[in-house]
């Protein structure tokens, strides 16, 4: 099996610093597991590594698409698999740094994807069901369909339930029965970083302020002036959609900052919930007394005992 070190955790927890330190020590290369860092020109709002960081350690799956192009978890999985294979073949240790839970999990657990496209009409119907009955309504709908196919649906994530219902309505039960395989696809630890909630939220709030200081609004204006459609997938990321609202006069400047901070905190909470469902993660808990070198040493111990 190929080797892979994985670093996960909510946004602003400190993944970048640890990933870079480990990559330098192990002479590794970084694979981004972020759904929005793939886009060129989206730098500030995605907290993309700096030019200096990119020059210091080779990174992959960053700046590979134009902003108006679409990206998906299945494409990410396919690209990441090839990268991991090639890096291992050349005796280079790949380090996956992830914030998008589905992307990371699909790779580690080898999700089985297919060519069935999203059913817009069905998804509109499911949106209504979710608003009226919540996750339980989706679970009941999925369970009834699963009974017909003689399978069992155990997950409770909204997006996975949408896709499961979509696949079953299209008659593809095999994709669900083979959704994951036992064990993980790679050798190496999955390391999770976590902080006290108040500390994490303070870091998020400050990060958003820094984004505005660095010129997030100007970045969005430049993108739009260069022909990027405000309705494109890239602009659905937190930070960009709110700035578009500000530029359209729907919210004030201060309200825009506050909204991005709130949405990012909510996103971090969802990330934490997602990762807590992945039992193979080895957690490093960071408090006010934890130093960077302590985090680094704990991670190195996990890696050295796993490889």
Architecture overview:
By secondary structure, this protein is of the alpha/beta class. It has 2 domains: 5-111 and 188-304, 3-Layer(aba) Sandwich (Rossmann fold); 120-177, no CATH class. The protein is built from 12 helices and 6 strands. The chain has helices at 15-26, 51-56, 73-89, 101-108, 120-149, 158-169, 174-177, 197-214, 216-225, 240-247, 253-276, 292-304; strands at 5-8, 29-33, 59-60, 94-98, 190-195, 281-286. The protein has a 6-stranded parallel sheet, with helices on both faces. Helix 5 crosses helix 6 (158-169), helix 8 (197-214) packs across helix 11 and helix 9 packs across helix 10 (240-247). The radius of gyration is 20 Å and the shape is globular. It starts with a strand and ends with a helix. The relative contact order is 0.17.
What is the strand and helix layout of this fold?
Layout: E1 5-8, H1 15-26, E2 29-33, H2 51-56, E3 59-60, H3 73-89, E4 94-98, H4 101-108, H5 120-149, H6 158-169, H7 174-177, E5 190-195, H8 197-214, H9 216-225, H10 240-247, H11 253-276, E6 281-286, H12 292-304
Parallel strand pairs: 1-4, 1-5, 2-3, 2-4, 5-6
């Amino acid at each position: 099996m190929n080797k892979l070190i994985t670093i996960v955790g909510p946004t602003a927890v400190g993944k970048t610093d640890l990933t870079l330190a480990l990559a330098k020590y192990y002479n590794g290369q970084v694979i981004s597991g972020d759904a929005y860092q793939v886009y060129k020109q989206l730098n500030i709002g995605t907290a993309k590594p700096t030019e200096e960081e990119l020059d210091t350690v080779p990174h992959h799956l960053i700046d590979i698409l134009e902003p108006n192009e679409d990206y998906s978890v299945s494409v990410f999985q396919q690209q990441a698999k090839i990268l991991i294979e090639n890096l291992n073949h050349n005796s280079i240790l790949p380090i996956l740094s992830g914030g998008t839970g589905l992307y990371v999990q699909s790779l580690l657990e080898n999700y089985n994807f297919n060519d069935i496209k999203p059913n817009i009409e069905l998804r509109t119907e499911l949106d209504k069901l979710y608003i009226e009955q919540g996750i339980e309504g989706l679970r009941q709908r999925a369970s009834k369909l699963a009974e017909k196919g003689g399978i069992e649906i155990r997950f409770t994530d909204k997006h996975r339930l949408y896709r499961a219902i979509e696949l079953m309505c299209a008659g593809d039960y095999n994709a669900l029965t083979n959704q994951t395989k036992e064990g993980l696809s790679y050798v190496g630890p999955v390391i999770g970083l976590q902080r006290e909630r108040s500390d994490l939220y303070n870091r998020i709030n400050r990060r958003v302020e820094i984004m505005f200081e660095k010129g997030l609004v100007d970045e969005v204006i430049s993108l739009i002036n260069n022909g990027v459609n405000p309705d494109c997938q890239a602009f659905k990321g937190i930070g960009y959609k709110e700035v578009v609202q500000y530029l359209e006069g729907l919210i004030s400047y201060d309200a825009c900052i506050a909204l991005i901070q709130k949405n990012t905190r909510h996103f971090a909470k969802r990330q934490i919930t997602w990762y807590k469902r992945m039992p193979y993660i080895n957690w490093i808990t960071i408090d006010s007394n934890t130093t960077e070198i302590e985090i680094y040493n704990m991670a190195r111990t996990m890696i050295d005992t796993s490889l």
